[in-house]
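Late entry, adenosine-5'-diphosphate complex.
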Amino acid sequence: MSTHLHNLTAAKKGRTQQSTPIEPPDLEDHFAENTFGIDEMRKRLPKTVFEGMVNSITKSAPLATHDAEIVALTMKEWAIEHGATHFVHWFQPLTGLTAGKHDSFINPTQVGQAVTSLRGRDLIQGEPDASSFPSGGLRATHEARGYTVWDPSSPAFLAENDNGCYLAIPACFVSWTGEALDHKTPLLRSIDALDRQARRVLRLFGEHVERVQTTVGAEQEYYLIDEEFFYRRPDLVNAGRTLIGCAPPKGQQLDDHYFGEIPSRILACMLEAEKELYRLGVPVKTRHNEVAPSQYEVAPVFEISGISSDHQHLIMITLKRIARKHGLVCLLHEKPFAGINGSGKHINWSIATDSGTNLLDPGDTPHENLIFLFFCTAVIRAVYRHQDLLRISVSSAANDHRLGANEAPPAIMSVFLGKTLRDIYDQLINGEELHSGKETDLFLGVTLLPLVPRHTGDRNRTSPFAFTGNKFEFRSVGSSQSLAFPNVVLNVTVAESLDYMATSLRNRLRNKDRHDPEVFRTALLHLVRDVATDSQTIFFEGDNYAEEWHQEAERRGLLNLRTTVDALEVMTSDKNVELFGKYGVLSEAELDSRMEVMLEQYDMSLDIEARTLESMARTAVLPAAAAYLHELTQTCIQAKKAGLSSSDGVLATAEEVNGTINAIRSAIENLNAQLAAEGDDLHAEAVRKRDHVIPAMLQVREAADQLEQLIPGDKWTLPSYTTMLFVH
Ligand code: ADP
Ligand code: MG
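Prediction complete; structure with ligand written out below:
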């Protein structure tokens, strides 16, 4: 089918796919109806058991075994009433995806009948074979025993399919020896670590709270393209990104896609995905077109970080699944199309008490808000001291395409504060009297229009780590990534800063009247000043894309871990082993294992890409080029026979095609030689992939992209960038 014809059928298909948006009055009723959440528990559980659950959710208190038995029974009844036949411990292995083994509720009895059951111990613990999940050397293949352990802080939910549904029970995944084999376990540990240190700090301020949590709202970018184009591109199927393809004449230069009208087939898909997410209790809130054609964004309202991490997985899974129902494929890869914007996932992160007080909210007079200054300074110190870990937490072969490619923040970490806050830190560091500048309302030049209150600072989208009013936004995270690891890093590094600053403040107040507000204020401001002074090289308010910044950052001694390999080389430094160990988040063996898994994933994903590219170049690009060359040479012969005076133009084109065929042929041979080699260990192999395999792939791509520009559309079998990006 010609591309043109196909475009038509694709568009028609979009029109016939009916989605059923929720009627506005139903929104509230449907929200979270597929979760066994607080409301459902209140309705169904005996009061004491319900209170036990609430305690375990809000205060991380363990649930009594007897209570778990009742919760299991009630949860099963609820799930079966809603059509569930199976239950699954839903966990997040180090693949970065989610996993689970489905068990039926059915148990046959001796008399040929069957009863349904979910015992307390089935709820609390599962036992999947751990040997086929990446463990980074923590487990040998024969050491297969692993456990999944129920995480009561995240509500169980119903995962629906057209033919039924199952009960998904969020869980952690650990080895028989108790080591974490997943992303959830360290996340929960890091939340506890931060909670302990934050409450310690608050006690110094005379505030007693029961629990401090981190809050996270993640903005997810993604592409939607027609599924037929997807299936005609082996690179998209195998690697999630295009390995060849020349830039379209019209890309994103007109900025006409950003926030533009959402094409109707796309909107139908979004509406259906959102409807499912509402029912799962995922508070998706905003949607819009992104900068690049066919790129979109969805963002939920923030939640406490354990739940937002689970919900982020549900967003990715749901987008992928619902896209297929609309004849689309959702691409979550960080860089599906070269030369066109990649996709990220901004993590908006803050710290809040159980009563909902946001500790990073400066209020109207930040210079007087001592709690805010303390917590904000702790975050700044954490980013400064642990630039390496923030970079490590977002590293992957895929994200290397974004970081530093002038569309996403560079691999260099820095903190953007915005004008008001930066002024306050400058005053502090310079020993000046503190005051906050007042932002005046904006007058728009038309008396009819209302005065608009102005934010305390402009935005800076080039910064990897920006203060955005009452939270920090970590922008380097990749679109396909689990939120968990970056979140762990934020939690544990800030916990360490809070610990350090709390101890320092206590020491400064020793032998002084700490209840005297002036004494307390002075000691605190001196501490904040000292910490800010030590960390100030991390402040940067300018353009992070500019080459001058890279030179400036180097002069300042900031880290620039350009690639995943550079980043992973410092992952298990003494500093990092001590940090994760001290706060009980990851043991040395666990940290080591994560580094190995990340290296392994880097190696394997590049291996898959290189093999896919080699095969596409040989089986799709070369045959098309050869066919065209044949046509050109035949034309020359026929032209001569027909007595045409000259066929120089055709001949020159044939030479060009022939030359590029020779070029791609030798590039393929070079790539093959690289594929046949192998490094001595994971690290050596990763270095080889970065330094030799990636350049060899680029060489093949360059020749292939040249051929794409020479060969007529009827011979070029791969959908072009223009087709994939502009046909909705
Ligand atoms: P912006 O457009 O400036 O990025 P939004 O208000 O649209 O800000 O918020 C972006 C994301 O930040 C949303 O997911 C939002 O829920 C989240 N967010 C807002 N406040 C907080 C907070 N206190 N903690 C964590 N995330 C937050
Ligand atoms: Mg934002």
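The pocket of magnesium ion (ligand 2) is lined by residues 219, 346, 473 (CB under 6 Å). Will revisit in the morning.
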